[in-house]
Amino acid sequence: MSTITVNDRTYTVPETPVVVITVDGGDPRYFHDALNREIMPRLAGMLTSGGSFALGASEMPSLTNPNNISIVTGVSPAIHGIPGNYCRLPDGTLELLNDPRFLRAPSIHSAFEAAGIPTLMVTTKDKLRLLLGNGGVPSVSVERAAGASIPVYGIDDVEALVGSPAPGVYDPLASHYAMQIGLAAIAHTPELKLIYVSLTDRVQHASAPGDELADLFFTEFDALLGQYLDAGCRVAVTADHGMNSKHDANGEAKVHYLEDVLQEAGIPIEEIVLPITDPYTKHHGALGSFAWIYLAPEHRDRAREVLGALTGIEEIWDRESSATIYEHPIDRIGDLAVTAAADTALGRTASAHDLTQLHGALRSHGGRYEQLVPLILSHPVNGPLTAKYQAGILRSRDIHDLVLNHA
Length: 407
Ligand SMILES: [Zn+2]
What we know:
Alkaline Phosphatase, subunit A, Gyrase A, domain 2, eight-stranded mixed beta sheet, 16 helices, globular, binds zinc ion
């Protein structure tokens, strides 16, 4: 049995294809609700015939990029270098963290590739493609599927491989197209051993568990999960983060605009950085439940006092503490890190965020209340991680260990 060691963890090379699916915004409540109402028969069947379902925790902030990278590297943001979708670098520049030059650790997939073991990365959002493909991993996105090829596997046209044109990235079924690409690739290239499929949270940002659109999403997901099982794959399903409503009963977003609050209190700041910021503003308007504040040392105590007095502000840590607590790279985070309650989002100024572009009332993530994620496997969990798995204290970054080493 051959193994690969990367980032101080050792993974067993599987004999049949292993597929890890990250449901973007795949809050465990969607799965529990769908299982309770019996609208995911393939998942239910998988669980009664030896599969496993436990809860685990995502990285903080509970955002897409840090968590996708933790899942594919098996390590924390302190080691892989991606603490947000967006951050401020030590020279003061603001960067979307979509480029491999920001990565400080290789992925499990790149280590497999280096050992000659065939892998594939499929992402719905193109923003993740270069990060996931780093280190020579064949990668493709739904967003840029038109005209895309995967030459190393002799696939000249991804849309022809799937047999239908790719939907737009805001289409509710865009995620399912990513799953179809994975299925078609396995049928075309049976020697694939490790496949990662990352979905988009467009539906989860707009629809709560039980809503019509969410039901469509999860019933289609279930049918495709069944196709992976029928193809003989070992499957793991997790999420990069959960999702919560962040609006009042009238649909008005509940937001603390931190720059406005601090300015009103006479506290000068350098900058508010919102790590949820990404190219998909229709999802969240750059409003989530986590923020970094950059400000001079003499103003920090007063800022903590003012913000700590607001309803819905929960944690305020200085840079050193937050680097320890959230396992963050200390050079890419703010002087203060702030988290908000489940129903509250954090913004810069009221005028900096355009909420008219949202698909509906604000549902978002980034804080503690979206840290809970499912860790679902198509097989029983055995071995040293079993007790922690059952206790719900593993991390999404453990999913490759679970699926490759504990089958
Ligand atoms: Zn996400």
